[in-house]
Structures are given as structure tokens and as C-alpha cells.
Amino acid sequence: MTSKLALLVVSACGTALAGPVVVYDSFGLGNTYITPGITFGCGATCWHDGGHTIALAFVPSSTVALTEIDTAAWWLSSPTNIVLSVAADSGDLPGTLLESFSASLSAAPAMMQMGSALNPVLNGGSRYWLVFDVPDPVNESGMLAVSPLPGAVEEAYKIGGGPWMSGMASSQGAFRISGEAMPEPSSAVLMATALTAILAARLGRKRPSSR
């Protein structure tokens, strides 16, 4: 009985507990992208202000625990790091930061992979934001490669420490969001029910029979 119930759990929930899946991808076929791209930072040189932090919206196709973000970017005027963050949505603008990453930008466009340490849950069908910044947005600058796929995307930006402002980007940045698949609620309930039955069956076998 126990082995049959265990097999039922594996069969019913195996798909929901599958390995890493891609839930958003704006790269072209073969990880292709377009340059030049979208500038961030560059306050003193480009705009003569406090520098621009940019954010691009994305909607995961299914619910996952974040495992990796891939993008393509490079520095413009001097070597610097990219400061990349995943943010929840708050009134159609970036809200609470779920996780932040930092990595060195190269002088030429290059693919970058950033593994998640916190594995925040991203809910399928909900809006999130990928935020691009540099440590010193006034004096440092980076550029995000552009997706070759057609279509505009929701964009938000802020100048220096100012508030977020919204708009529509003329093109989409190139990035990919991957995560570990999460069980659907019905599968989670089935798993809990089956495991409870397995435990009850084991306890029943251990209980001494009355005479």
C-alpha cells in the first residue's frame, strides 16, 4: 500500500516538480541580440543630471523559484559593475527589491549569467521588473543590449534618487529569466494528502493488534 501511494505522488507531481525552466526570454534565436542598446547611469556625460536607473517589465509564464538571470551588457566610458535587481510590481512601477546582483561589465557586448542565492518565488502571470543600474550613476555608465524580437515593453526610469516614472520603451532589452518549477496548488494538496496516508499506513502496521 505504501509503495503504491508513493508511486501515485511521484506520477501526479513529477511534472510540477520538474527541473529549471525558462519563464521569460527576449533573446533571439541562438542568444542573439542587437547593439547599441539602452544606456543606464551616464548622468554627467549623457544627460547632465543624477544619472538614469532603468527598469523593464516582464511577466513569468509560470511560477518558479528564481535560479538565474542572463543578459547582455557592457560599460561605456570606464570600467564599472552592473547592479541588477529583480523587483516586485507596485502600482505599475518597480516596488520591493526581491534580490540584487553585481558583476563586472566588459568593454565589449557580452553575455552575463547571474545565479540567484535567495531564490525568490516569481508568480506566473504577475508583473515584475528587472532594474539596471551602476554604483555611481553620475560618473559611470553601462549599456544593455536590445532584443531582436519585435514589440515594445513597459519601462520605468528614475533620475538620481528621484521617484520612478513610467513609459513605454521603443525596444526591449535582451534578458532571460530561469527558475525551478514550483508545484501547482492542486499538486501540493495531493502530495500532502498522499504523504499523510503513507504515514497513517506505516503507523497502522506498527500498532499492536488487540486480542
Rg over alpha carbons: 23 Å
State the domain count: 2
- Residue share in helices? 10-25%
The CATH class of the largest domain turns out to be: Mainly Beta
Large-scale geometry: globular
So, CATH architecture of the largest domain? Sandwich
- The count of strands amounts to 13
Biggest sheet details: 7 strands, antiparallel
Multimer state: single chain
Q: State the CATH topology of the largest domain.
A: Jelly Rolls
Class by SSE composition:
alpha+beta
Unreliable residue stretches: 1-17
Mean pLDDT value: 86
Relevant terms:
2 domains, alpha+beta, globular, 18% helix, disordered N terminus, 3 helices, 7-stranded antiparallel beta sheet, 211 residues, Jelly Rolls
